[in-house]
Structure formats: C-alpha cells, structure tokens
Amino acid sequence: ALEFYTDGNQELFPCEVCGRRFAADVLERHGPICKKLFNRKRKPFNSLKQRLQGTDIPTVKKTPQSKSPPVRKSNWRQQHEDFINTIRSAKQCTLAIKEGRPLPPPPPPSLNPDYIQCPYCMRRFNETAAERHINFCKDQSSRLVFNPAQTAAKLTSRAQGRAQMGPKKEPTVTSAVGALLQNRAQVATSEVPTKSG
Fold first, then answer.
1. The Cα angle at residue 155 between residues 140 and 146, in degrees rounded to 5
2. Cα pseudo-dihedral 124, 126, 132, 137, rounded to 10
C-alpha cells in the first residue's frame, strides 16, 4: 500500500474497495462497512407499493408488454418499378408535346398490396383508415341506395327543363336609367381633353 501525506502530519491509506484514502485508525472502521455495502445489491424503490401501503387497494400487477406489431415485408422493388415507369411515361409525354403528336395513354395506376379495398365504394385504404371508413361507408350505403339509372334520368330531365325555359330576355332599361346613360355619353363627347403646357 502506498502512503500519502496531506499536511505532513498523518499518513493516508487507500481503501481496497472504493479507493478513497483514510487514516489508519479510520480505515480499520471503514473497511468492513465498505465491503458490506459494495457486496450487497440494493433493491429498487417501488413508489407504488409505498403509496398503497396501509390502504385497501390491492397492488397492481404489471401486465406483460404487448408484442410488437409484425414487421411488414418491404415492397421497395415494386415502388422502384412504379417510379421508373412514371418517369418513362413522362418522357414520352414531353417528346409527344415537342413533336406535336397526340399524348400516349397514361400508365395504369399501381395498387398497393397493403391497402384494403372497401366493398361498398371500391376505394382502397390502409388498415386503420379502412376500419373507420368501411363502417362509415356501410352506414351511408344503407341510407342512400345509389341507382345509376335514376341518376341519369334526373340529369336528363333537368337538361330538358332548361331547354324549355327558352332564351333569356334582355334587361329592360327604365326611363331614368336611359336618360342618365344619354347624359353621360353627351358629356364624354363634348369634353375634349386639352393639353396643359
């Protein structure tokens, strides 16, 4: 053991466990206490247990952690191919515009395999949105019965009604408004702009 002198009067010796320096007589008392503390593991303090102590509330057992959601397979290859196809079709459109040709047909839309299709409106949604939407769409479809033939008949009857109304009439001009317009026209022709010089 190495000897240390602080002020030249007393020797200080390091503790074998914690490394702190003590005088010889203090080190004799400190050594067993330090070994005892360092060998013992301290229990973590449970504040819930402490708060519930002395009450009728039973201690709450921790529920096991729910499993993490399953990791979906990445569809990066499909996204990459869609991206390349989009760029190619855009280049073809640009070339057709420059040359004056008709535009080529747009590429077919890509369908995300993770999306769920609504059986009522045939739109596609991710899982959480699909759960909400399908309930909503089911409720709406039960209220409104969509009949394409009825809708077409309504539109044609509206168009026929407009055709029967005939052309719009020209607005009538009252005598007071007509006189006012004539006065303005006369004032505009009689005043000749003069150059200020």
1. 20
2. 0
C-alpha 127/C-alpha 116 separation (Å) is 7
Strand (E) positions, the chain?
A: 4-5, 11-14, 21-23, 116-117, 124-125
| pLDDT band (50, 70, 90) for residue 3 | low
Torsion on CA atoms 165, 166, 171, 174, rounded to nearest 10 = -80
**Per-residue pLDDT reduced to its tens digit, 156-178:** 777 776 666 666 666 676 777 77
Place of tokens 């408004």: 177
Closest CA to 120 of 138, 96, 95, 98: 138
What does the alpha-carbon distance between residue 33 and residue 89 come to, in Å, rounded to a whole number?
80
Distance CA 40, CA 19 (A): 18
What 3-state DSSP class applies to 23?
strand
Q: What is the pTM of this model?
A: 0.31
Q: Which residue from 136, 134, 154 is spatially nearest to 146, judged by alpha carbons?
A: 154
Amino acid symbol at 87:
I
- 23, 10 Cβ separation under 8 angstroms: yes
pLDDT tens-digit map of 68-95: 776 767 778 888 988 999 999 999 999 9
